[in-house]
Every structure is written in structure tokens, then in C-alpha cells.
Design a protein that fits this description.
Layout: H1 2-5, E1 17-25, E2 31-44, E3 51-64, E4 67-71, H2 73-82, H3 91-103, H4 120-146, E5 155-172
Length: about 170
């Protein structure tokens, strides 16, 4: 895991994802991509410097007739922990599947690409992270309010791009 988080070597500096895999499984009915993300948030507290926080998040989406369907985080986690390979895929085919999948991510390094509605993968990630930041912000505001702390001007903002630590591509058994 530690090596997956390192991006300091020149050899790995252009890579989008640190760990990847492709399996053929009975556990999915459509091509499904699971993303392991490290997300950073800035907690802006009134009259204090911002605090940086991070979390690891699993998310994923299925592709059906070139349409993207985001799956619930519980389902993504369940697939990540339980999907089993049921057939072999030749290495060249795995590389081709991975290459086609990673092209859907566009230029991951540019933070504005996540707001681009033309890229459904990155705009979906943007929406997921914005919703998670709102969820965290609401939770923190409730706690702050309960202990009589100031909530005005308190905010939590996700930082883009998140680190794509892992990508697991699940190909349905045909």
C-alpha cells in the first residue's frame, strides 16, 4: 500500500493509477470498474488556517451500451472484497481492456477536467466527492453546533485530483 501512494520516482510520474487488475467473473453482468481513491479535503474553520484531511474511498461504475451507471459504495466494496475470477484472460487482452478503460479518464492531472460534463467518468467522480464533502460538512456542523462552536464560514472542500490508487476491472463471464 505504501508503494502505491508514492509518486516520487520519475519512472512512475506519468502513471494515472498505481495498482490495477482485470478479471473475468460471474459476479457482474456488465463491465464494471472499481476505483480505489485517496481523497483530500480542506477543512476551513473560522479564524484558523485550513486543515487537511484525507480518506480512502471505494467507488465504481458499470458500463452498459456505452452508458455509465454509478454503483453504490456498499456494492463497490462488496464486489472488491468478494468478486472471484472464473476464467483466464490472456495478458495482451488484459492490457488492451485496461488501455481502453483508462482512456475514459482523460487527463487526470488537470483538476478542471472533473467539472467537465463531457467526461462522464470524471464528472461522476466530481459529483461523488462533492456529495461526500457536503455529508462531512453537515456532520461536522452538527457536532460544532452541539458544543456551541461557530459554524458560520465553516466548510469542507475536496481537493482535485484525487489519487487513483487502484483500478479493478471486472469483465462478465460470457
Amino acid at each position: 500500500m505504501e508503494d502505491a501512494l508514492k509518486k516520487s520516482s520519475v519512472e512512475h510520474s506519468n502513471k494515472i493509477v498505481s495498482r490495477c487488475g482485470v478479471i473475468c467473473t460471474k459476479d457482474v453482468k456488465a463491465n464494471t470498474n472499481l476505483l480505489l481513491l485517496r481523497v483530500r479535503y480542506l477543512f476551513q474553520t473560522p479564524d484558523k488556517p485550513p486543515l487537511l484531511s484525507e480518506e480512502i474511498m471505494i467507488t465504481g461504475y458499470s458500463l452498459n451500451n456505452n452508458e455509465i451507471y454509478w454503483i453504490e459504495k456498499e456494492e463497490a466494496l462488496q464486489l472488491l472484497t468478494s468478486a472471484q475470477p472464473h476464467a483466464n484472460i490472456p495478458l495482451d487482452e488484459k492490457k488492451e481492456i485496461f488501455k481502453k478503460t483508462i482512456q475514459n479518464f482523460g487527463d487526470w492531472k488537470k483538476d478542471k477536467i472533473f467539472e467537465d460534463k463531457e467526461n462522464p467518468v470524471n464528472s461522476g467522480i466530481y459529483e461523488i466527492l462533492m456529495n461526500r464533502a457536503k455529508e462531512l460538512e453537515d456532520s461536522h456542523k452538527k457536532i460544532r453546533k452541539a458544543v456551541f462552536m461557530r459554524i458560520k464560514d465553516f466548510s469542507i472542500k475536496p481537493q482535485f485530483p484525487p489519487d487513483l490508487i487502484g483500478l479493478l476491472i471486472l469483465k462478465p463471464l460470457e
